[in-house]
Specification:
This protein is mostly helical and 258 residues long. The protein has one domain. The chain is 86% helix and 0% strand. The protein is built from nine helices and no strands. Helix 3 (52-76) runs antiparallel to helix 4, helix 3 (52-76) packs parallel to helix 6 (135-173) and helix 4 (83-121) runs antiparallel to helix 9 (223-257).
């Protein structure tokens, strides 16, 4: 009976230990000579360039929706002039970093998990180890660094499109000029609004890349495990994004507003 009760806790601790050991191997191989630059560039292309389309669309729609939803309430208080600042602070601080990270968790983490899972099932990773190559250094480290670089860049692109979408929505009803909207939007932004968002996006990239690689490397043999690895990568990465967001927001509140 006791074994049945504590078995979920035991499995959770074992998984946590395996994750810590896997992360330790990533850190060790990061500082080892022979960084795979070609693989890193390829992963930047797959992670960043192939995600630009959905990033542009998402950022633009977020700006439009946020503006249209806020206009009626602000008009009731005669505060239409605060719309540009509200949109810029909202998208820079919270909305775009989190939404883009969740989209990347579904697109990138699942792709990494499926790709590495299929390599594991077909014993390609074992063949690399037998031939003397380091699969963590060649497969994992470039993917994680590509996510840590490209997801903040995608977030910045989404921020710009969200501001533009907010201008388009405002211009339809208020007739505000392009220069005036962007002047008001960026005049309210401060250093403390941008830096935590960038740091948060880097951590999101680390979590997405790590969970994708972890689930791909630990998929069991069999074709069904590839799908399970991709699914677990998406779920785990999404939860990690939300948890990291809560922690970073709390730390930022302590540091900036205390």
């Amino acid at each position: 009976m006791a074994i049945t009760i504590f078995s979920p806790v035991t499995r959770a601790l074992e998984t946590l230990g395996d994750n810590a050991y896997f992360f330790k191997s990533i850190i060790r191989n990061t500082f080892r000579k022979g960084f795979e630059w070609n693989e890193f560039y390829r992963q930047c292309y797959n992670t960043g360039y192939k995600s630009i389309g959905i990033t542009l669309l998402t950022g633009f729609i977020l700006g439009i929706v946020l503006t249209l939803q806020s206009q009626p309430t602000l008009k009731d208080f005669g505060a239409e002039s605060f719309i540009p600042g509200m949109v810029s602070i909202s998208v820079f601080r919270e909305i775009c970093p989190v939404i883009i990270a969740l989209i990347c968790a579904g697109k990138i983490a699942s792709g990494i998990g499926a790709e590495l899972g299929s390599m594991n099932v077909t014993e390609q990773i074992d063949a690399m180890e037998v031939s003397g190559a380091n699969p963590v250094q060649f497969l994992v480290v470039p993917r994680i660094f590509a996510c840590m670089l490209m997801i903040p860049l995608l977030t910045i692109i989404a921020d710009a499109l969200a501001i533009f979408g907010g201008y388009m929505a405002t211009n339809l009803s208020e007739g505000m000029t392009f220069k005036l909207f962007f002047t008001k939007a960026f005049s309210v932004l401060e250093f403390s609004d941008i830096v935590p968002a960038v740091i948060k996006s880097v951590l999101f990239g680390l979590a997405i890349g790590f969970t994708g690689c972890w689930n791909g490397f630990n998929s069991t043999h069999g074709t069904e495990s590839v799908g399970r690895a991709a699914n677990k990568a998406v779920v785990t990465a999404s939860v990690a994004v939300i948890v990291i967001d809560v922690i970073v927001v709390q730390i930022t509140s302590w540091v900036v507003y205390s």
